[in-house]
Design brief:
A: about 400 residues, mainly alpha, B: about 400 residues, two-stranded antiparallel ribbon
Chain lengths: ~400, ~400
């Protein structure tokens, strides 16, 4: 059926044009079995869609979602300080836009995805009642501004071209500490916002980004250690990686929550957020190590040998020759790991943090909605499921496209 | 590099000798790691000594005093913590094994649907995979659990043909159980089984002797099934009653009597794990089948096999080799993910461990036991799957 085979260019047979009836016959009603399958599926889908649509139209729980948007997004972060997470968001949007202009590739895909999400979200946000006593920008204006920053950054990036490469790389490296600084404050210029006030989508994003960023040094060291010629180092790394990969994340979080305070003097003062962050980092490092190891194995041995021949020592050849190539090769896998982590951070509910899922559970339990027939859990969980879905789906699609591009480049 | 003159053998200082450097580095590494562990350990012991909770496994033999909602083995609160922990392990194994079997079946089915020629079927499967994969499992589990809680009370259970009842406590269904003539039937079961196995072995031997391919398994199954079925009727008609009777649940005042009851927690956990893992398995199945050389299918069609025969006899056995390693890691994920049961109150290993810790305050032993249990289950699964993988790998010269 598919006519993709590369026969002699000019003499390729003309692709048969198929009309609607022909398409239906070929794709839906090609045999008796297919007729039955199609009709049965149509019936099931019709039932599902009609009952879902009927429920959506009559659902009475939406006020619970609308009234708690702030709780779901940023939990109890002080309303007067809300401009700080917003500023962080703008920074990310701008950097992503600039990178999209300079590098295209995965950055462009992500920037386009993010820009589309921001713009689409701005439309419903415009019609919703604004969050009470909100000092900062209204949500719709913030979303549009972020989308504009992505777009503006893209054009600026295209205009500036490769000159921006190094400044951008440095900016990305500084982004994580800067964002944490803005959101936490650390008592310098900005007033401190304690981590027990953090939550909602903001916490989910911060935790998953922390998990990937902070686990990078440890993960790379573990990956290199596992390939090391020194048996003591090698077996230690293998033991660590396999131990962590053999137990569920919940037990690691549990360990972070119960044992971390015991391990360090004065550890009782470590707050839940940091405990969860340490646990997620230690957990993520083991998986990152395996992914990076995959990349290192894919680098031909000749690269290291050539580096040796040029007089680089082991450290130089690893840091300057093998590692950069390996990391570039595993970018799509790392995006996949990030998606997994983004979904897995929902487990911090179990150790008592209020991430997006935890915030939703709180909303469902609020006494105001007890009178709503059937409760408000369907609406609330559907809402956060859509948020999770949009983020993971966009990221996985983008990484798949990049993977295809990388594969095309290889052949 | 080491092209210097042989006479310099004794003149190399130890700090330039790569072997010495390796040893020094490793010793240094070991010292750093040990000192780090020792530091954490002494801190922990000092802290625990302050609150008078030194790690001690003695609590395992003291009475647990808390009830567990469901258990495979006999359990009541007067039994020990050790027993409670074993109940947790068995509950984890129960949901993991059932989940692995069901997720494999559903995953293979959906994976094949994704390759169907039927546009609607193919895209329904795509929609399923894309929706399920991109939403956190914990959210799905809580959703299923709340859905079971939204079912009617026991007294107003949803009745499906009098054989299956759905209510907010779970699912109660009719289940076969041994009847009066079961004892008369058991010899037939054994004879059927032995006859089937013997037939299979003999036929396989003959095929190998004649060096010809052939089908033995369906015939062996038919023979075994036939003997068992004949035995069922003989035993049933000669004595009083049938060997197996259907235990139909009956609604009493407060609950069902008879039948098999699956709790809401277990049903929700199983549904969530199966639906989530099946989405990943279906992707493995799809890519595994697609990875088999196209010529194989064409050749199978050319020698006259039908489409389904080609899939069953030619494509699938080859795709299996590609599919086993990633499927193994999905099985491991399912087992590890069953620890999320704590969010929906299914008394699995982690749930029981958490309760024990809350009651005794023995965090360190409990965490050690938890990690050891999960590690052993993971290692056992890996070993089994690796053994199976070795068995079906292509034997090459």
């Amino acid at each position: 059926m598919a006519t993709t085979d590369v026969t002699q260019g000019r003499n390729r047979p003309a692709r048969p044009t198929i009309d609607v009836i022909g398409w239906l016959r070929e794709n839906l009603f090609s045999s008796w079995l297919n007729v039955i399958i199609t009709l049965a599926l149509l019936f099931v889908i019709f039932q599902l869609v009609s009952s879902l649509a009927g429920w959506l139209l009559t659902a009475q729980g939406w006020p619970a979602v609308v009234a708690n948007l702030k709780l779901l997004m940023t939990w109890t972060y002080p309303a007067a300080q809300l401009w700080r997470p917003q500023l962080a968001l703008f920074l990310v949007a701008l950097l992503l836009g600039l990178s999209a202009g300079v590098w295209r590739g995965i950055a462009l895909g992500l920037a386009m995805g993010l820009g589309i999400i921001f713009t689409t979200l701005a439309i419903p946000a415009f019609f919703l009642t604004p969050v009470a006593a909100q000092v900062s920008l209204p949500a719709w204006l913030m979303l549009l501004a972020a989308a504009a920053l992505v777009a503006g950054g893209y054009f600026a990036g295209v205009a500036a071209g490769q000159r921006l490469r190094w400044p951008l790389i440095i900016a990305w490296l500084l982004l994580y500490p800067v964002v944490i600084l803005i959101i936490h404050g650390f008592g310098g210029v900005l007033p401190v916002v304690k981590t027990n006030l953090w939550g909602g989508l903001m916490l989910t994003l911060l935790l998953s980004v922390s998990g990937i960023v902070l686990s990078f040094p440890l993960g790379i060291m573990l990956a290199l250690g596992r390939r090391s010629d020194l048996p003591v180092v090698k077996w230690f790394c293998i033991a660590y990686i396999e131990l962590i990969r053999g137990v569920p994340l919940v037990t690691v979080l549990y360990m972070g929550s119960l044992l971390l305070p015991l391990f360090l003097p004065g550890g009782e003062n470590i707050d839940q957020f940091v405990r969860a962050m340490v646990a997620v980092t230690l957990f993520s490092a083991a998986y990152l190590a395996e992914n990076v190891r995959g990349g290192l194995q894919a680098i031909p041995k000749g690269q290291a040998e050539a580096a040796r021949a040029l007089g680089l020592n082991t450290l130089q050849s690893t840091l300057l020759i093998t590692l950069p190539q390996a990391l570039r090769a595993v970018i799509p896998v790392l995006v996949g790991q990030f998606i997994g982590l983004f979904k897995d951070t929902s487990l911090v509910v179990i150790v008592g943090l209020a991430d997006l899922l935890g915030a939703a559970q709180t909303v469902v339990g609020q006494p105001e909605w007890l009178g709503t027939p059937g409760g408000v859990w369907r609406e609330t969980f559907l809402f956060i499921a859509v948020i999770y879905w949009v983020f993971s789906f966009t990221m996985s699609r983008t990484s798949r496209r990049v993977e295809q591009q990388l594969n095309v480049g290889k052949h | 590099m080491a092209a210097s003159a042989p006479t310099t053998k004794t003149t190399i200082p130890f700090y330039r000798d790569t072997r010495m450097i390796a040893i020094i580095l490793q010793v240094a590494f070991a010292i750093v790691v040990l000192v780090g562990i020792w530091y954490l350990y002494t801190n922990m012991m000092a802290g625990l000594r302050r609150v008078n909770l030194l790690p001690n496994f003695g609590f395992l033999t003291t009475p647990a005093g808390f009830p567990i909602a469901e258990s495979v083995i006999a359990y009541d609160p007067s039994m020990t913590y050790g027993r409670a922990f074993i109940v947790g392990v068995l509950n984890t194994l129960r949901v993991a094994i059932t989940g692995i079997v069901l997720a494999t079946l559903l995953g293979v089915l959906i994976g094949i649907c994704r390759l169907s020629g039927n546009w609607l079927l193919r895209n329904t499967a795509v929609a399923y995979v894309e929706i399920v994969r991109n939403v956190p499992l914990l959210l799905q589990l809580i959703f299923w659990f709340l859905l079971t809680k939204a079912f009617p009370r026991v007294q107003e259970s949803v009745n499906l043909g009098g054989l299956l009842y759905l209510n907010n406590r779970g699912v109660t269904m009719a289940w076969p159980e041994a009847g009066a003539a079961y004892g008369a039937w058991t010899p037939w079961l054994w004879v059927g089984l032995i006859a089937g196995v013997a037939f299979y072995a003999v036929r396989r031997y003959q095929f190998v002797q004649r060096d010809r391919p052939g089908v033995a398994l369906p015939w062996a199954a038919l023979i075994a099934g036939g003997i068992v079925l004949v035995g069922y009727f003989v035993a049933g008609l000669s004595g009083g009653g049938w060997p197996l009777v259907l235990d139909v649940p009956a609604l009493q005042r407060f609950n069902f009597v008879g039948g098999l009851t699956v709790t809401a927690s277990f049903a929700a956990l199983l549904a969530g794990l199966v639906i989530y893992t099946a989405a990943f398995i279906s992707e493995i199945v799809r890519s595994g089948i697609q990875a088999v050389n196209k010529g194989q299918r064409e050749a199978a069609r050319a020698v006259g096999l039908t489409n389904s025969q080609a899939l069953r006899l030619v494509i699938f056995p080859q795709a299996m080799r590609i599919m086993i390693p990633p499927t193994t890691s999905q099985y491991l994920n399912l087992t590890k993910n069953s620890s999320l049961a704590i969010a929906i109150a299914y008394p699995d290993l982690f749930y029981v461990g958490n309760t024990i810790n809350n009651q005794t305050g023995q965090a360190v032993p409990v965490i050690l036991l938890l990690m050891l249990s999960y590690l052993s289950v993971s290692l056992l699964t890996s070993l089994l799957m690796n053994w199976y993988n070795k068995r079906i790998q292509l034997v090459e010269r």
